[in-house]
């Protein structure tokens, strides 16, 4: 009861409420601008968390997270361009609805489905996270190392387009994080005689440069394409009878998004595609998908917004980022003195309850913000891109410098931005690098402590039942493609056997 009252006190504070409202509205706007996305929105806001309190900082980030995922649907519906990758499936039926004159209804369905998916996932989060946290008291350095190693396997999931480059990017992130003091001995590593590197690479300048500034460079280098006309239409909520008729796809898509959100490394883009495919398979209107069918729009938006809450389950309960965005949020929580993981529910229940409540509030703000801001969306989407990118550079520079008033941080931003651009240009994904950078300190420190406890015997790590299970899951996850390949070859061999005997 004391934890609940403490969380409620944090929730009703004016700075937290203003932060979640402002974060949600800003997230909607940034999400609606094609190409910027949730990751950029959160990394740009990271410097503000140093001047805000813990509650307001978390509220700001959660508001931006929820708002930006929803915001991507606006440009998807209005100009046939998903504002974020999570809204890629929204284009398939959202824009056809707008083109036939139902843009207002499409925006209404998008807003309703997004809020419903987020709220339902938050309720599930509040129930599931404490269950996962019950094992927290049994976690020590060995278990945390095994957990960190298992979390690294999500690099494989986010690097399916090019696994080798994804693994190299993850290793690069692990390496960058070890620059500075050794956590056990205190010796300096890879500082190259530069005093500013003795404290390591700062999380904020590294992430801001890697994503925000590299995005500016990328947009300056790419070829410009003409964007189609912006469609204006009055916002229109679906009727209660329509909601009842499509409630099944709403609930099912929200559950799919919540489940996929709890799987480390999968992300909202995959969730929306899986949900869209399932809705198309089971919907009575399957033949209308792709021509402006609301079920397709509902499936995409309910699922990708449910991921925003579902991804917090592994982030809070296990300290494992559910997707690249929560990897950045994981770093932001650490900056606020919060250590996500199994012990969080035992040591800081009030903060966990506050996060649940704030996710609920953020989804309500997202729903109201979508209704109120719809007349402005088409104008915002027509901002000249050079002006928009100039604003991003100014925000990145002033925000990063304001943290420590250290010009070296600006140099880190510039180098990280150039490195991010070069990596993207050569086909290297950035998400594995973030995952490696964020997880590196936990993995290294836990490994070192575990070796000290076991007198340097790494094999003794397997004596822990939890660690043994996590090691087995890690091996299974990594070897599963090989196992599937062997199974397919065995089946092909059995099918070809009768024909060989007959000859």
From TrEMBL:
DUF112 domain segment(s): 17-435
Spans through the membrane: 12-33, 105-129, 135-156, 163-180, 192-213, 351-374, 386-403, 410-438, 458-480
Annotated keywords: Membrane, Transmembrane, Transmembrane helix
UniProt xrefs under Pfam families: TctA
InterPro entries to which the protein is assigned, alphabetical: DUF112_TM
Record carries keyword Transmembrane: yes
Membrane in keyword set: yes
Entry-linked PANTHER family: TRICARBOXYLIC TRANSPORT PROTEIN (PTHR35342:SF5)
Protein name according to UniProt: DUF112 domain-containing protein
